[in-house]
Amino acid sequence: MDTATFLSFGTDRTKVYPPNFDILVFPKNTKEVAQLVKFAYDNDLKIVPSGGRTGYAGGAVARNGEIVISLVKMDQVLDFDPFFGSLKVQAGMITKNLHKEAEDRGFYFPVDFSSTGSSHIGGNIATNAGGVRVVHYGLIRQWVLGLTVVTGTGEILEFNGEILKNNTGYDLKHLFIGSEGTLGIITECTLKLTSKPSDNRVLFSAVPDFSSILELFKETHNVKVPLLAFEFLTRYCLEKVIDHLHVPDAFPEKSPYYVLMEFEIMDERDEEKLFSFLETVVEKGLVSDGSLASNSRQAETFWKYREGISESISIDYTVHKNDISLPLRNMNSFLEDMQALLNSKYPGFEIALFGHIGDGNLHLNIVKPKGLSDAEFFSQCKSVDPSMFELLQKHHGSISAEHGIGLLKRDFLHFSRTDAELEIMRQIKKTLDPKNLLNPGKVLLESK
Amino acid sequence: MDTATFLSFGTDRTKVYPPNFDILVFPKNTKEVAQLVKFAYDNDLKIVPSGGRTGYAGGAVARNGEIVISLVKMDQVLDFDPFFGSLKVQAGMITKNLHKEAEDRGFYFPVDFSSTGSSHIGGNIATNAGGVRVVHYGLIRQWVLGLTVVTGTGEILEFNGEILKNNTGYDLKHLFIGSEGTLGIITECTLKLTSKPSDNRVLFSAVPDFSSILELFKETHNVKVPLLAFEFLTRYCLEKVIDHLHVPDAFPEKSPYYVLMEFEIMDERDEEKLFSFLETVVEKGLVSDGSLASNSRQAETFWKYREGISESISIDYTVHKNDISLPLRNMNSFLEDMQALLNSKYPGFEIALFGHIGDGNLHLNIVKPKGLSDAEFFSQCKSVDPSMFELLQKHHGSISAEHGIGLLKRDFLHFSRTDAELEIMRQIKKTLDPKNLLNPGKVLLESK
Question: What Pfam families does the entry give (chains A, B) (predicted)?
């Protein structure tokens, strides 16, 4: 293994923290992970659990000589229940492979996002992954029936097995989901499966103003066809995609906002319902133009408008990413405050705004103005962030919707959690990882 | 207030633990609850939180002179978000009133069960309530966006507000859901709402053997009409309902098992799908006879077959209740082992078996044989329970599916949770309630 490959096991997509470690191990099962952690415990060695390393928060970075425990060799199916529809796998299984294992068995695993080709299911659970269909299926938390974890003392805990209902004391499983490897290493998991949607239709629409987006979302509650996705982007984002991916514009007239909706449909009758929904929202003035994809190629283009944004702006521009969430009704006022902040202090900064708006989740990317150096830009962003986090706090939002805390947002966690909560979190960390060996320095500041 | 009414605030439906306390308080808001708990903390006084008192595990019993804090005066709507569809209420709101508040606002709160006319939403959350449509909507855990709790030191914690996505460290909210008032008093909650099902159809069916029930459940994954409920009962249960409620028999031929399915339908086409589903499962021999309710009266009768069981057997017979859960595929072997256990040791005992089988949840009620005194019967049941819990452990089941632990199953918790888990639970209890003042003796044994 060359050095670059070796080091890649101790880093993620954040790219801002250079990895630095010497020991990389590839256990094959839970018992081996437990033995490794026990050894680390006895010898006071720190550990970074390593999955598919697709995170954006530095949660999988080993930069202080930690032992990196990679789960890439733990990718086996362990069990399957055909009646209930559940699948038990090792945590190192690549998410896309899990999708396939579910489909091969006549079921469907609904948690999906762009990095499923490399992300691990264990990492998805450790970061409580979301994705593009949260508005319908929820976060991954909802699909985890059972977990096997190895705590910071090398103890193996098995939570809940494969049952759905188990009201027997505190639900410890949920503590580990989203804990970013700081409370235990997830080694196995049992996932609930569902049925595959029959078919779907994508509706792309131009929306004249921000408040109409919210009204449009409200209207979807009455369509009586299941809504799988409700995504939004600004004209600015669409233009970047058109420039970068050479796709045609969506509609003859420009519009400040666009919304992509995906619906699950059974038959032509559902399709008719969608046409009549489109008519209604156009009549109400919530949508100025709209198009229901008539074939899969058109649907793909519509999705490209949304999913091509990250790529288009990252390659052609320098951007500072933020992944935030807000109550829907506070979004407009937050964005007005945010724009006012930028106008007054950083008049050259532009915002590329898009995201899973049905979930209250915005990807707010600040684009570097021409003429500013990268270093100067990032340094200015560093002073924008706390002001934005303050605005989020004011509007009851969160500084991290789905990317997690890791290293990147650790020092800002108090904008989303109170001192009392942080103290409880520290006590829980101490209970499960008394020597602070598991992913140290991530999520919480090292205890004083 | 007369003594009986007074005492009723410190007990629940278990009826086996006589209440014994002198102080009953009715705070009106979170701040007053916090002041009360702070006072109790400063003076080392124990507290029992009191909601609708519809529990079956003794979780709301005050039998050692505790202060009873009743939330009956905390029943106000606090906030509503029309875009996302969420409702914030005080925890003392009666569940049925919450249903109405949601419907008045054009939404639907889907957690439903027979005691919603008296249960409080806060108690539902504290016990992670389930009900008859868990197979479709999940447990209440899934519908809780935000929580306000008062911990054992009188501190007010507000978790998550009203946002859906918030990956900022450990999700403490889930610790309180299902903790039966031992970690904090839930005072306010923000609930996610959904859209009301358009219409539904009830299908009642006779099933020739137990394994066909599981196969039938598997078939429902392919109907392409949403399944809202999948409930089952034995012939024994049906006969008790027929005798007690004077309803007609379901079908001309007797059958050992019956399954009630409820589906959400949009139009006649969905209804056709159900008829064709029924045809398929009859052809496959999974169902020997079946009937799709043609009107709401017939649907009501079908539901009566299932919901009338508890009432019919409790009034006419003496029963010992158990609420257990199992992986679906292990159910048959567990039931065979259980029947063998009874046959060998308690040949006169009969089992009334019914429940939410789509969730793996069985209500296993042992019916007292004629000739045995109540005292003798319950004493024998006390020795059956541990043997049954051992069988559950062997078959990866849980000793409490939805009723919780309370006092009733506290001493058996080790059948469902390991020593390591119990120790973690104790540490968490100590962190949130350092003086062990909140609902002491429930769920966990008092710390040694």
Answer: FAD-oxidase_C, FAD_binding_4
